[in-house]
Amino acid sequence: MSSTTGTGTAHRPQIAKADGSAVRVLVVDDENSLTDLLKMALRYEGWEVRTASDGLGAVRTAREFRPDAIVLDIMLPDIDGLEVLQRVRADGTETPVLFLTAKDSLDDRIAGLTAGGDDYVTKPFSLEEVVARLRGLIRRSTLTLAQAKDPVLRVGDLSLDEDSYEVERDGASIELTATEFELLRFLMRNPRRVLSKAQILDRVWNYDFGGKESVVELYISYLRKKIDAGRDPMIHTVRGAGYMLKAAG
């Protein structure tokens, strides 16, 4: 996501290559709105992202960019995703590939995977699912985790798994919406740090509400009902400054 606001560790990539450089991901889809959303989500992970809107462009970009993972739509306006993959593989690369497709039959799934793809997501899908699948593919590839980071964030008795998107407090599972999850993740990546409403808007929503920061207050209230209800509070308001999450007690 946007990096206009200094937020310490929130900008540090969770996964990086052995030399410490950012993971590179190529996103291929002819729906510009979809590629824009995926680019935003993947950049939030600290990854470098390139996009292509057709198959031939994808092959060219793959040769120039040398991505560490590819998100590839099967249905493209010129050559299809399976042909793109065959050409990329012919260049001698074993880059892991996550297929996107509107098709949902077993035959299509088998065709994609036997063509050399590594995983498969059917449209419509959630951005969280795509990110989680990619993180899994990258972890299983030849890349090295930066500082061997655990995908589970922990603050006190609260835990959040960035791979499985599971949240628990004191062993009890907590169901969150996608936005609530992103808000909690941002708070947990910055424990005991006061985060302003502007910082939260920038990192969680990635656009300006025109000063209508009440949306942050609303989602903080939603989180409190799920995280703090009946327990010692972890989410604290710092008047005139913002919000902070810290272990209870």
Automatic annotation (TrEMBL):
DNA-binding region positions on the chain: 150-247
Source superkingdom: Bacteria
InterPro entries according to UniProt: CheY-like_superfamily, OmpR/PhoB-type_DNA-bd, Sig_transdc_resp-reg_C-effctor, Sig_transdc_resp-reg_receiver, WalR-like, WH-like_DNA-bd_sf
A GO cellular-component term linked to this record: cytosol
PROSITE patterns referenced in this protein's UniProt entry, alphabetically: OMPR_PHOB, RESPONSE_REGULATORY
Domain Response regulatory intervals: 24-138
Protein name as annotated: Response regulator
Span of domain OmpR/PhoB-type: 150-247
Biological process annotations from GO: regulation of DNA-templated transcription
Species of the source: Agromyces bracchium
Keywords in alphabetical order: DNA-binding, Phosphoprotein, Transcription, Transcription regulation, Two-component regulatory system
Post-translational modification 4-aspartylphosphate, affected residues: 73
Pfam families noted in UniProt: Response_reg, Trans_reg_C
Molecular function GO terms recorded: phosphorelay response regulator activity; transcription cis-regulatory region binding
Record Gene3D superfamilies: 3.40.50.2300, 6.10.250.690, Winged helix-like DNA-binding domain superfamily/Winged helix DNA-binding domain
